[in-house]
Design goal:
Blueprint: H1 5-21, E1 32-33, E2 40-41, H2 59-65, H3 75-98, H4 107-113, H5 120-125, H6 132-137, H7 141-144, H8 152-173, H9 175-196, H10 204-218, H11 224-246, H12 252-268, H13 277-307
Antiparallel strand pairs: 1-2
Amino acid sequence: MPLSIRWRYKLDRWRAQLAGMFKSDPKQMRPQLCPACGTLVGATATKCHQCGANMNFSFAAASKSLGRWMPQTSPVTYALLTICCVMFILSMIITIRTQGFGSAGGGPLGGLMSLGGISSQVSYRLGASLPLAYNITQPWRFITAIFLHGSILHIVFNMWVLMDIGPMVEELYGSARYLFLFVASGAAGYVLSSFVGSLSVGASGSLLGLIGVLLAATTGRKSIAAQSLRSSLIRWLVYIGVLGLIMRGTDNFAHLGGLAAGYLLGRVMTDRQPVDVVERKRANLLGWVAGAAVFVSFAFMVLNYLQHA
């Protein structure tokens, strides 16, 4: 007895489903685009024949893998913004649960900056920078302090500057080198600060480092755009310097150290994105080193926090 059309349709569909379980999906065998330079490479290629980038483990490949959760433009800037905001919210929650908000001090401006203040004890446990004798035994504090902030206005001002300057530097130098510049200049700022300072937090040293990088990039440039940018950067430095003098608790040594480190790095690095295999490998190495340093530093911060819980 012949099967009805309905049952023949069901059998054909089941047969196709079973066959698909034992056959590779042709979509997975399509050619790939190199995440670093965009060159079309083979479906099974592990390295790009044009630029030599690893298709799975390069800095560009990692950025592409995270692309569905991160913006396509300035991804590292947004990642840094997210980390700083998450750490501030965490700091505020811990402060509220243990001590309440910090009290105002240092006159009207000091009181304004301490609005929603984070407890010094909480900042200490979460990785604030300390005097040099302590930082030498816990060097991870040079990096974790970059992502901590002391009050609502402190983080709002710093994140405003980050979103104003960060995308410009990231586009100019590329995401990998930009991450290195941010972390290295911030850590250098806290190295200088720890010689003379006490407990300190904030991304200001890194932000001054980015300003230093742009100052170095515009030095000697005669174009109108370069001169205009340089004038804007100098105005930023004047504003920050004045606020640092009149506001109590500002870590001017971290600012100075970050600015100097950023300027020196800007003089050493070419002010453009990598253009060949060698430059891409060097840039990716710097990015991975900076990323690993941040990851390891936060791991030590978590261990330190749990030990003092």
